[in-house]
Write a structure and sequence with these properties.
With 95 residues, the protein is mostly helical. Helices cover 77% and strands 0% of the residues. The protein contains four helices and no strands. It comes from Candidatus Promineifilum breve.
């Protein structure tokens, strides 16, 4: 998604942030070169990226916990055994 589109698609609210000078200077350099439309767009895109990464980490952690769940593993073995013949039949139909 383009950075400009982030601000157009969502309802917004005004907030105040305190940023390190170096980040502001780097962001301003990109704005001046036309690579970013605004500091606001840069912050929005960065927050979206950070939140997406954190949500992916939560999902990965949930799947990792399932890997240690004995009843889940047993259920998967049972499902695999139940449908193994159907899997082989499907493979033979494709030939």
């Amino acid at each position: 998604m383009a950075v400009k589109e982030l601000l157009i698609q969502f309802e917004t609210t005004r907030t105040t942030v305190t940023l390190p000078v170096a980040l502001v200077e780097r962001t301003q350099s990109l704005i001046d070169r036309g690579l970013l439309p605004s500091r606001n767009a840069a912050i929005t895109a960065a927050l979206e990226s950070l939140l997406d990464a954190l949500e992916r980490q939560e999902i990965d952690a949930a799947f990792a916990a399932v890997a240690d769940d004995a009843s889940y593993r047993e259920l998967n073995v049972m499902i695999d055994e139940t449908f193994s013949d159907a899997g082989w039949e499907a493979l033979n139909l494709e030939r």
